[in-house]
Amino acid sequence: MNGTDTGFVLISAALVMVMTPGLALFYGGMVRAKSVLNMLMMSFISLGIVSILWVLFGYSLAFSGDVGHFIGNFDAIGLKGIDFTSTVDSFVTNAKGEPHKIAAFSFILFQMLFAVITPALMSGALADRVKFSAWMVFVALWVTLAYFPVAHWVWAPGGWLFDMGVIDFAGGTAVHINAGIGALAAVLVVGKRIGFKKDPMRPHSLPLVLIGTALLWFGWFGFNAGSWLGVDGTTARMALNTQIATAAAIIGWLIYERIRHGAFTTLGACSGAVAGLVAITPSGGHVNAFGAILIGVVAGVVCSWAVSLKYKLGYDDSLDVVGVHLVGGVIGTLMVGFLATEAGGWDQFGKQATGAFSVMGYTFVVTWIIAFAIQKTIGFRASEEDEVTGVDQTQHAETAYDFSSAAGSHISSGVTSPVAAATQSKKVEA
Fold this sequence. Notes:
This protein is mainly α. The protein contains 16 helices and 2 strands.
């Protein structure tokens, strides 16, 4: 067992874990004040649900064995047969060309946190309008029926896209295309927010968005470079390209935004950064620095254009999950077909397109069925009254901010009870 590579993967896993609360802050700043806590919780709850499901059967379905090239088996259910001496192969090799061995638990943890963030990415598309209980059911069903199989296709030996030679270094298809197309399907079932295209729905805290972006960017080095499962020149190239593509995407997004809308916005810079991070994820270990710059610029410009499609096509993707993650994932997945330094060309492009569009087709159908079934049984959409009041209060009995404190009323981190509020009001009047 190689201790250096094992330690690096553990550190990378910790960085990936930071991305989920970072995503929560990124999305939380983009919603209206009455929905902040709900948005944070929709990301945060994924850490609880998916972690447990991954140990129970998710890891086994994704990486243990193979059934028809589409799904794993139950040999490792509950991590059966795996202990502190168990190893998996790193992509790093020794002087003889043999793969380094890393602790199996480090790989399991690393991949667990990939599974955690993928449904959390989808939450931004449904902001302001779903029941939290229904969202928890949705997350559990979606990772089981959509994420675990697709992860097997793309990353497990025996998976049909893996065996075909589709390049997905760190999750362009399995994570971003998967989450982006799933978000679109769920949005079409749940429907539009009340007041969509009529009422202003501006971000309530751009500083919060910027903090979330910084945490995502920081964690993404573990997400991308850690996917090599060890330390060598490819690891370093992936880390460098992550920085380069993200920087280029910010510039591309802002230039397009300035030309189209007349301003360089903070939200545009943050969205551009995420678009660049998404696009370089599948490709960064296989392109040179100039390829990374090109991928970043294209992602920044095209994703900036794509987020406006929801107004033209009429689907309410609240926080632009489709425009950034689906479109950015497709850009990175397809462009590596030509830009890969080792295998670029029309043949590789065809493989990349097969991977991208097969995931899109499968996950769209599966997600639509899951969302429709939840809507028709326990109900996915919050009531109109709850949505107008704000899902923070109606779903969590809390608010992020106490706006009443300026009037001298009782300050509380949660919701003031009617009795306490009435008592405090009498004291103020006296």
